[in-house]
């Protein structure tokens, strides 16, 4: 019951943004974000030089002197323009270093692959509806990488907020497009590198939230087998609704070493 109401609010929020939201293939250039406005927003919020401070916990905390995540980079992009412009894209400075250094490593190890970054925290942290956590700059949602016929699939990368509505079966296949499935190998590699760079920045992964029925598929991949031996904690008990919501993305909580 503790998590039911926030989760329901989450679905209502997304439904209001798009009443019959169903992710569609990537938009044409004419529908792409106006990058000049985004860049202005980034520059305006990228002036903090004081050390970041995470106060409290991921589900009851705040953020001081947080850092804004870039909207895009050589091999990553933020998932939704509206979310970004509303300031739901701030993290602790060490989390930002971890994210960006991981993408740099992924660019070298998986050249040509694009990764999606989803919601983080507000500039000063605190409650960020409809999330339960994401309150102190230590929580990040990462888009689950997808594939079609063994190749990267970006068809749904620019769906925006409706991306949270994507529903996968227990084998990781997208229910509305059976040719699209989760790339568990790339996902496991990403998590392993996040842990490596986190530790280089004085952090570690404290928790990963991913749909329970998909963990066996994740750990069966080659990188997944290595991931399973690291001891990184994956949530063991989730309410049905929270569980269902964590297949299109995986949630990561960081904490200091």
Give a brief description.
This protein is of the alpha+beta class. It has eight helices and 13 strands.
Question: Can you offer a commentary on this structure?
Answer:
This protein is an alpha+beta fold and 257 residues long. It has one domain (38-43, 56-256): Muramoyl-pentapeptide Carboxypeptidase, domain 2 (2-Layer Sandwich), CATH 3.30.1380. 32% of the residues lie in helices and 19% in strands. The protein is built from eight helices and 13 strands. The strands form five sheets. It has a three-stranded mixed β-sheet, with no helix packed on it. Helix 5 packs parallel to helix 7. The longest helix is centred in the middle third of the chain and has 17 residues, at 93-109. It is globular. The relative contact order is 0.16.
SSE string, helix = H, strand = E?
A: HHEEEEEHEHEEEEEHEHHHE
Contiguous helical run count: 8
Q: So, CATH architecture?
A: 2-Layer Sandwich
Average of pLDDT: 90
- CATH topology: the name is Muramoyl-pentapeptide Carboxypeptidase, domain 2
Tally of DSSP β-strands? 13
Q: What's the domain count? A: 1
pLDDT under 50 segments (min length 5)? 1-9, 11-22
Largest pleated sheet: 3 strands, mixed
Structural class: alpha+beta
Going across the major beta sheet, what is the strand order? Answer: 4-5-7
Strand content: 15-25%
């Amino acid at each position: 019951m503790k998590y039911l109401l926030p989760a329901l609010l989450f679905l209502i929020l997304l439904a209001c943004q798009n009443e019959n939201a169903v992710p569609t293939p990537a938009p044409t250039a004419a529908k792409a974000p106006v990058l000049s406005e985004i860049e202005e927003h980034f520059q305006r919020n990228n002036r903090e030089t004081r050390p970041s401070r995470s106060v409290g916990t991921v589900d009851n905390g705040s953020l001081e002197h947080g850092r804004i995540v870039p909207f895009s980079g050589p091999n990553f992009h933020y998932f939704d323009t509206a979310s970004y412009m509303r300031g739901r894209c701030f993290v602790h400075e060490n989390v930002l270093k971890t994210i960006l250094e991981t993408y740099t490593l992924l660019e070298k190890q998986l050249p040509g692959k694009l990764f999606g970054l989803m919601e983080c925290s507000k500039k000063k942290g605190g409650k960020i509806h409809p999330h339960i956590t994401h309150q102190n700059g230590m929580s990040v949602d990462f888009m689950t990488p997808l594939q079609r016929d063994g190749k990267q699939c970006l068809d749904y990368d620019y769906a925006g907020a409706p991306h949270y509505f994507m529903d996968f079966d227990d084998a990781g296949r997208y229910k509305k497009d059976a040719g699209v499935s989760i790339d568990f190998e790339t996902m496991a590699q990403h998590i392993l590198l996040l842990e490596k760079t986190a530790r280089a920045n004085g952090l570690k992964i404290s928790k990963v939230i991913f749909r329970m029925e998909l963990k066996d598929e994740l750990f069966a991949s080659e990188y997944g087998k290595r991931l399973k031996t690291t001891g990184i904690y994956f949530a063991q008990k989730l309410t049905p609704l929270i569980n269902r919501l964590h297949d299109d993305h995986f949630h990561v909580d960081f904490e200091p070493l």
